[in-house]
């Protein structure tokens, strides 16, 4: 029982780490990256779809993203989605492809992005703590129903706390790496 709870909790922590990595991949740095736009929702054929499902996205240079829609009729829609996003990049098109020139970030914008990174890391930490509380509550319920002993409860709580500490350290590490990437000129 304890092992079931801790292994389920461990799986939730891995998902939280992956979710943070995925979120931070969309944070703009001074370099172009297809991750900035590939999951951007675009209204296509009556439903929102991620951009990478309706176009090819390539990064030929350090500061340029080229988007080539599979259907040229989608160019205006994709352009509109990019303009409405919080990227702060103006798209230009030649009728076949959309080019996004990633400008150099100002110091002020870098600081705003770092605040955003810290905020996202903190949100994931809160979710991890909530998951920890739920897992411990589950163990306490098992102990209350006499399904596990008090010793097993304490060992389970210690294991959950160890997993939580390890995960939070990893979250902070991921956040610091992204901050350094954003602040690098």
TrEMBL record:
Keywords: Coiled coil, Cytoplasm, Protein biosynthesis. It is found in: Cytoplasm. InterPro entries: Ribosome_recyc_fac, Ribosome_recyc_fac_dom, RRF_sf. SUPFAM superfamilies: Ribosome recycling factor, RRF. Residues 20-183 form the Ribosome recycling factor domain. Residues 125-152 form a coiled coil. The keyword Metal-binding does not apply. The keyword Cytoplasm applies. Gene3D superfamilies: 3.30.1360.40, Ribosome-recycling factor. HAMAP family: RRF. Belongs to the RRF family. PANTHER family: MITOCHONDRIAL RIBOSOME RECYCLING FACTOR PSEUDO 1, RIBOSOME RECYCLING FACTOR. Responsible for the release of ribosomes from messenger RNA at the termination of protein biosynthesis. May increase the efficiency of translation by recycling ribosomes from one round of translation to another. This is Ribosome-recycling factor. It comes from Candidatus Chloroploca mongolica. The lineage of its organism: Bacteria, Bacillati, Chloroflexota, Chloroflexia, Chloroflexales. The gene is frr.
């Amino acid at each position: 029982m304890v092992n079931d709870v801790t292994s389920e909790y461990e799986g939730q922590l891995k998902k939280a780490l992956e979710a943070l990595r995925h979120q931070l991949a969309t944070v703009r740095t001074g370099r172009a990256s297809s991750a900035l736009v590939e999951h951007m929702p675009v209204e296509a054929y009556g439903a929102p779809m991620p951009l990478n499902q309706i176009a090819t996205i390539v990064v030929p240079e350090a500061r340029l993203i080229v988007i080539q829609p599979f259907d040229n009729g989608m160019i205006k829609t994709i352009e509109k989605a990019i303009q409405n996003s919080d990227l702060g990049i103006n798209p230009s098109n030649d009728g076949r492809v959309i080019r996004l020139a990633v400008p150099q970030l100002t110091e002020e914008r870098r600081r705003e992005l770092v605040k955003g990174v810290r905020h996202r890391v903190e949100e994931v930490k809160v979710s991890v703590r909530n998951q920890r509380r739920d897992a411990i509550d589950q163990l306490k319920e098992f102990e209350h129903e006499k399904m596990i002993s008090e010793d097993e409860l304490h060992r389970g709580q210690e294991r959950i706390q160890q997993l939580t500490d390890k995960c939070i350290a990893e979250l902070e590490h991921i956040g610091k790496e992204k901050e350094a990437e954003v602040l690098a000129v």
